[in-house]
Amino acid sequence: MKKLFKVDNLFVHQLDDAEQMGICAASNIRRDVLSILKSKSEINMMFAAAPSQITTLNSLLELDDIPWNKINAFHMDEYVGISEKAPQSFRHFLIDNLFSKKPFKSINLIEGDSSNVNQVVLDYSQKLKKNKMDIIVLGIGESGHIAFNDPPFAKFNESELVKVVDLSEVSRMQQVHDKCFDSIESVPKQAITVTIPAFFSATVLHCVVPSLTKAKAIKRTLEGDVSEACPATILRKHSNASLYIDSDSASLL
Predict the structure, then answer these.
(1) Smallest Cα–Cα separation from 211: which of 252, 167, 242?
(2) Burial 37-69 (b: 16+ CB within 10 A, else e)
(3) Cβ-proximal residues to 90 (8 Å cutoff; 6+ apart), any chain
(4) Is 252 within the bounds of a domain?
């Protein structure tokens, strides 16, 4: 059973379970890809890398009419100092679950293990300036963060498109909850992240958030004040954003 409602500008799709949520999100993402490609020869898409995104990515892969060869792929964050080959790497996740499975026009990765992190930030910022995002597929963290824009450091208005951030304990602990790391001590303390203004400049946002561990964040996102204390609340002000939740993540609404 599907429930559709709106909070400010944000369309909220509530589905029974994560599988149905992923199918719904993928169908709407496909619709927007095909629609935008009617007026452009290629498009720019950015993807989140997290276990919460698996059902959506798998559903996208099953659709047979998405012209992947017209999509330039980007991602939104990476740990500082971690190799692409490490299973915890966000590059590794997206290569394994999406980028290696379809013939993208280009794949643009954040090299978190570079010896010159400041140059990586500068280079990726330039890529985003030259390639405005058409569609971003994202999630919401347990603290209400988007990518690694954690409270209290997240800013709705800042000049940077990409930056190095210190990770909050909540964000680092989420990686343990997601079984990406065995303990918080092994989670890196810094990451490179795309900023909130960069997200907000995208034409379309599709935000996919399953599981009980996100219930508090979803309640704050939809029922709290729009505030940097819960960065995801800014989704309610975007002109074309959709949120997908399941019965678990919606359980406190």
Answers:
(1) 252
(2) beeeeebbbbbbbbebbbbbbbbbeeeeebebe
(3) 49, 75, 76, 77, 78, 79, 110
(4) no
Per DSSP bridges, beta strands 106-108 and 71-75 are: parallel
Residue 86: closest CA among 173, 184, 188: 188
Instruction: State the virtual CA torsion across 209, 212, 216, 217 in degrees, nearest 10.
Output: -20
pTM of the model: 0.95
- Domain assignment of residue 85, given as a range: 3-245
Written as six digits, the tokens of 234 are 């800014």
Q: Around 161, how many Cα atoms within 13 Å sit in the side-chain half-sphere?
A: 18
165 membership: H or E segment, kind and range: strand 162-166
Give the percent of the chain with pLDDT over 70.
100
At 68-86, the pLDDT tens digits run 999 999 999 999 999 999 9
Is 18 within 8 Å of 250 (Cβ atoms)?
no
Q: Is 118 exposed, middle or buried (0-12, 13-18, 19+ CB in 10 A)?
A: exposed
Q: Count how many domains the chain has.
A: 1
pLDDT tens per residue, range 142-189: 999 999 998 888 999 999 999 999 888 888 888 888 888 888 888 888
Q: Count Cα neighbours of 3 within 13 Å in the Cβ-side half-sphere.
A: 11
Identify the CATH number of the domain in which residue 79 sits: 3.40.50.1360
